[in-house]
Amino acid sequence: MKSRDFISIANLGPEDFRRILDSALEMKKNGSGQMLAGQTMGMIFEKPSLRTRVSFEVGMYQLGGHAIYISKDEIGLGKREPISDVAQVLSRYVDLIMARTFAHSTVEALARHATVPVINGLSDLEHPCQATADILTVYEKKGKLEDLTIAYIGDGNNVAASLFLACALTGIEFRIASPKGYEITESILKIGNKISAHEIIATESPEEAVDGADVVYSDVWVSMGQEAEGEQRRKDFAHFQITPELLAKARPDAILMHPMPVHHGEEFAEGLINCPQSVLIDQAENRLHAQKAIIVELATEKR
Predict the structure, then answer these.
(1) What does the pLDDT look like over 240-281, one tens digit per residue?
(2) CATH superfamily of 9-127+287-302
(3) Is the preceding peptide bond at 261 cis, omega within 30 degrees of 0?
(4) pLDDT tens, 3-58?
(5) Contact 129, 153 (CB under 8 A)
């Protein structure tokens, strides 16, 4: 791997990413055994989460290790105690650190000062664990990654950023339709365009993005911490809802994806997540398998 940490999808090379996907599929099929017996992960949560906490905690348990939950009130990153001190102290107690934070700079600072591998469980810039599970799901459902197109409809947020970078690593064509002012950040576009075989298609037309796509993907319009912008965001995204009519413009065998939680009746038309094309629950399960593969990869790097 390019780095001993997993802060961004860009920390990986194409071979690294494919190895992690293959490892995840192998462990999903045959189990993982006690590969990390006696090892401990410290899990820092500035933002709460169902899938992130449970998948990492269960993943460490299945690998024979142990996970410790550390809430924002217990640690007070950068307020009660400097990030550098937290990183150094935790490095003396645990074998890995996972952090789900508001600011990407927090995860970067933890990685800079820690002497054990650090995993980005989510930041305002990227969500690399989610993107790994997403591509794992596509790989599993389609049986390949070549000659595929993913259409992302919605906010060019952290999920979109990491998904774009993951597509760039694997050769998947990535299209995104977002309202004006909600595009993927320029810094992510520069990184992705350097490694992608395809030029990103960015448009304000959901119909253009979805046309002939193999995967149709959406995320929430109002993320945690954006509640004050909720009314304006719902107005801005009103024409970016995935409806049966929009989904019909994709390939007949297209799959429907979302990282969850879903705001029913917003990003998807009411009831659409229960359609035969929906793979949301499989996608959520794959957070467990993808993250186990990431943990094992980093633990191997540490040794």
Answers:
(1) 999 999 999 999 999 999 999 999 999 999 999 999 999 999
(2) Aspartate/ornithine carbamoyltransferase (3.40.50.1370)
(3) yes
(4) 799 999 999 999 999 999 999 999 999 999 899 999 999 999 999 899 999 999 99
(5) no
